[in-house]
Amino acid sequence: MNLLLLLKLTLKSILNRRFTSYLTLFSICISVFLLLGVDTVRKEAKHSFTNTISGTDLLVGARSGSVQLLLYSVFRIGNATNNIGWDSYEKISSHRSVAWSIPISLGDSHKGFRVMGTTEAYFQHYRFADEQALRFKVGKPFSAVYDTVIGADVAEKLGYQLGDELTLAHGVYDTDFARHDDKPFVLVGILERTGTPVDRTIHVSLQGIEALHVDWKTGTRSREAVSAQQALEQDLQPTQITAFMLGLNSKMEIFRVQRAINNYKKEPMLAVLPGLALGELWQLIGVAEKALLIIAVFVLLNSFVGLLTVILTSLNERRREIAILRSLGCRPNQIFILLASESLLFAIVGCILGVLLFLIAIVVSQSVLQGYGLHIPLSSFGPDQLKLVAAVIGMSFLLGSIPGYRAYKQSLADGMSIKL
Length: 420
Fold this sequence. Notes:
By secondary structure, the protein is α+β, with helices and mostly antiparallel strands. It contains 15 helices and 17 strands. It has 2 domains: 3-49 and 286-414, no CATH class; 58-272, no CATH class. Helix 2 runs antiparallel to helix 15.
């Protein structure tokens, strides 16, 4: 009996049990889809996470912890334990080893989005995802005190367009008594989507931050209100900032400058390498992605068990069929191949359907994933995913060899004596 005839018999046997076959294929398809989806999402999430900031040599803030500094300065989560004096910032940024610096001032918000005060150096030097620069979808960087630039998520969620006015609020909670409603900002630029916290940030100048708070003392508005125009006539030079980023002339100088900042005597400061801090933070939150992968593997194993159960259950029903094949000259090893090929065929078809479903899901959910800072192109299905599919097919064949071996043993003993 040649292999072509065995394949034909396998297909007829599967079609004879259509309902259970469809359920088995559906189970394998969904399992492969989940496995590929979880594996791809976790890898892209880690890649997006580690590429949130790129090209910055040092992050500097008040002395606390490296993870805390990273969270509030890059991810806009939480608050600093203390501020940094402007004099200290100027002294460090003017060091001969420093190529550029980006000051950051945090503390205000707008409808749930954090406000960040900075300078035009932010748009020139900030990099993400393998040295990509910030690009404007429309508009330009701020130039006037009451100009603002927003990220893609802010523009999309709030529906803002160039020329719209934004009223910022003091602190992270947007309440009536905390709003700077007497000093509205005008939207002059919208950044392209980056997949980073930049998309959820409202950017203003440091002078704009100072203008907002000229009539605020110790977190509350003073009785003598200062109008927006009157604020422009005052000295808006900042006295404190929250943190700053540094780019150095040479990578060889990173540790020397870091040590000098950490030992700075005028005020306690902490300088950290963004890459090391990101790795430390990922160790804390990376448990979730590993748990997701484990769940996907168990779902796949459950499908394998279902496949094995279906074939073993049908084995007793097919003992006469196998005995007839033996009487027609089918050898025991061919009986083994017949049963094992069923499992292999289920796996191949199920994997093909799972891969197609995975690719369709990428195309359909692209805009949703970008909202969470994930960009998963079709090219993400590569050698690693092919290895997973090959492992699924190989495992299915091994599991299929169990009923195949049982059929092999039974075909030697049963002959034509089987009774139903």
